[in-house]
């Protein structure tokens, strides 16, 4: 299954839709406005919250928690490395590996590719193609992609503001 996530570049409140390969809305994401740290809610098209993603503050490296039904089910952690960014997903024993600077990466579990994420460069705003190998992990995979995108967006904004 292939999903497409496109974020609007000039949006006061983060709200965008995730579409399937037929262009049909499958999920939507809402970010909270005026909060400390990033917070996202992932909903189905009936308005049922499927996951809540929250940035943990005051950490050396970025961390995000994923909640489902009020319980933490995963923690996305950016690992300290010298050569290239690397992420792990505690609670699910997943790892995320690839070329983050070019926004091409895999979400893996025990060596099995759950999803491949690819940024579409010639678009207005951030757009991603997400190829899922197992639809049972769709919601958690989308939560991981949202957290990594928030980390990379913050890094790009801090780099551009320091120059």
Question: Can you put this structure into words, describing what you see?
Answer:
- This protein is an alpha+beta fold.
- The protein has one domain (2-162): LURP1-related (Porin), CATH 2.40.160.
- 15% of the residues lie in helices and 48% in strands.
- The chain is built from 1 helix and 12 strands; from the N terminus they run ββββββββββββα.
- It has one helix at residues 138-162; strands at residues 2-6, 15-20, 25-31, 39-44, 49-56, 63-68, 71-79, 86-90, 94-99, 104-109, 112-120, 127-132.
- Strands 1-2-3-4-5-6-7-8-9-10-11-12 form a 12-stranded antiparallel β-barrel.
- The longest helix has 25 residues, at 138-162.
- It starts with a strand and ends with a helix.
- 26% of the residues are buried.
- Mean pLDDT is 82; it is low at 159-163.
Summarize the structure.
This protein is of the alpha+beta class. The chain is about 15% helix and about 50% strand. It has a single domain, classed as LURP1-related (Porin).
Keywords:
163 residues, alpha+beta, Porin, globular, disordered C terminus
Could you give the topology of this structure?
Elements: E1 2-6, E2 15-20, E3 25-31, E4 39-44, E5 49-56, E6 63-68, E7 71-79, E8 86-90, E9 94-99, E10 104-109, E11 112-120, E12 127-132, H1 138-162
Antiparallel strand pairs: 1-2, 1-12, 2-3, 3-4, 4-5, 5-6, 6-7, 7-8, 8-9, 9-10, 10-11, 11-12
């Amino acid at each position: 299954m292939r999903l497409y996530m496109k974020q609007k570049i000039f949006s006061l409140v983060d709200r965008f839709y995730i579409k399937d390969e037929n262009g049909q809305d499958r999920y939507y994401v809402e970010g909270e406005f005026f909060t400390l740290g990033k917070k996202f809610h992932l909903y189905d098209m009936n308005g049922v919250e499927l996951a809540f993603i929250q940035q943990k503050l005051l950490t050396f490296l970025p961390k995000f928690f994923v909640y489902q039904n009020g319980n933490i089910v995963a923690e996305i952690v950016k690992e300290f490395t010298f050569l290239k960014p690397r992420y792990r997903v505690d609670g699910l024993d997943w790892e995320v590996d690839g070329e983050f600077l070019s926004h091409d990466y895999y979400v893996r579990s025990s060596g099995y590719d759950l999803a491949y994420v690819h940024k579409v460069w010639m678009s207005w705003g951030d757009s991603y193609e997400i190829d899922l190998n197992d639809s049972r992990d769709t919601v958690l995979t989308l939560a991981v992609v949202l957290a990594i995108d928030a980390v990379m967006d913050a890094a790009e904004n801090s780099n551009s503001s320091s120059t």
